[in-house]
Amino acid sequence: MSDFNPTLISIRDHDAELAKAEADVAGLAATRNDRWYPKFHIASNGGWINDPNGLCLYKGRWHVFYQLHPFGTQWGQCHWGHVSSADMVAWRREPIAMAPSLEQDKNGVFSGCAAIGDDGELRFYYTGHRWANGRDGSGGEWQVQMLATPDNDELTHITKRGTVVDCPRDKVDSHFRDPKVWKTDGTWYMTFGVSSAHRRGQMWLYTSHDMVEWRFERVLFEHPDPDVFMLECPDFFPITGPDGTERWVIGFSAMGSKPRGFMNRNVNNAGYMIGSWVPGEAFHPETDFRLWDCGHNFYAPQSFTAPDGRQLMYGWMSPFTEPIPMQDDGWCGQLTLPREITLGADGDLHTAPVRETDGLRMDTTDLGALDLNDNEEHGILDDAVAVEIELTIDLAQSTAERAGLKLHAANDGSYTYVAYDDQLERVVIDRQAAARGDRGYRTAPLSDAELASGKLDLRLFIDRGSIEVYVNDGRQVLSSYSYPSEGARAIKLTSESGTTRIDALRIHQLKSIGLE
Ligand code: FRU
């Protein structure tokens, strides 16, 4: 062990700060309007949330922490909220885990991860955030990487240990955050996102032998696009394909990239590159940048390796663009369903819902095969609050220009449209007819092989205020908020300008995960 000691400068009583945060969240929860509040997605009972943090399976329970602003429904003064589960289906709300209380994190306990040491003990690494001018963002940010450890096996009380990676502020354009820690070949590694002095988005690599004292090793990756000035919430992990070959995946949430065609339509965009990495060297990308999720509302995902070897990921459904209707309801923001990341035989990453998601199903209606005539619309549910739909479209036997579903369809004529678009050869989620919130559409590509198969599998998860669309078993995903109007929320099949053959259609009513 080294004699290095993290720096700890306490300025407030942590437990008292946590109690204030609990009281404010409870106040917001008491007045909450549930019209769009999720039944089966993780959200705070009141206040604002963003990134998933500290994901792990520890001593038999799954833990999800998340960025939480307890004092309002906008981003601000970041804490860590916490929920846990024995089975990833039924969740329990846990006490708020961390609040700003140190000089180093006085303006925010920012994002971070959990890492379990060889001793079986868990460590949290997070970013301590303060405004450089002591007031606001106009003078830049001052960020450092921090260590914290739990006081019990349930992770319901945490002790902060202090700064383990200081910021060399002359080499950094203030952004310096979101540590991810893992072990390769007997060495502990930490990477996090940095805006270099020249405003390039980079990931830096540090090493450690005791998980406490960290040394700078090198820049692991610099984004090739000079517009990209910061890589938030970076991720880095090996993955093995069906042929047994190991590849490395670099993930990040890029700030600054410009929209081009179908790419980078959101304010900031989260995606990955697949490549190779040898410890001691930089990461070598061997693919282009690909989005984790093509929807309107996906950002800052975090993945972790479960003890059974699965690489699991949660994303934050970032509202991005105003207006954000749920902000009037006492809460704002939810996470996606948990997804398993796999490397397919097609050489790309797939993210399907974890198999535990099937545990949400209560009862199932099998509508079998169905043919829709030219321009036919066919109602399949009069009022769907929380449902999963499995749909196989026979593309080879369909002539429709767009074939799909109107979701959250209300009496005032508003709806959100999910369809296969035969002109684009893409799956589209279109909010043109939405009653509230930001509109616009997003699309997910289909590969030549997927198109050639003549079939399209869609798996849709419709919650009170959101829609997730998994295309061909997670080859693509689209996640978007959708705020239905008052009254019943119907689901209708549609076949625009041509016919549609549906090979299979099943509807599952989904249960609550217990956080309402
Ligand atoms: C990404 C992010 C992170 C940061 C956190 C603060 O959404 O900006 O980079 O740690 O949110 O809430």
Topology:
Elements: H1 14-30, E1 47-58, E2 61-69, E3 79-85, E4 91-93, E5 109-116, E6 122-131, E7 141-150, E8 158-165, E9 172-184, E10 187-196, E11 201-208, E12 215-222, E13 230-240, E14 246-255, E15 269-276, E16 284-285, E17 290-291, E18 299-305, E19 311-316, E20 331-332, E21 339-343, E22 349-353, E23 361-366, E24 370-372, E25 377-381, E26 387-394, E27 402-409, E28 416-421, E29 426-430, E30 441-445, H2 448-452, E31 455-462, E32 466-471, E33 476-481, E34 490-496, E35 500-510
Parallel strand pairs: 1-20
Antiparallel strand pairs: 1-2, 2-3, 3-4, 5-6, 6-7, 7-8, 9-10, 10-11, 11-12, 13-14, 14-15, 15-16, 15-17, 18-19, 19-21, 21-22, 23-35, 24-35, 25-34, 26-31, 26-35, 27-28, 27-34, 28-29, 29-30, 31-32, 32-33
Bound molecules: beta-D-fructofuranose.
Beta-D-fructofuranose binds next to strand 1, strand 5, strand 9, strand 13 and strand 18.
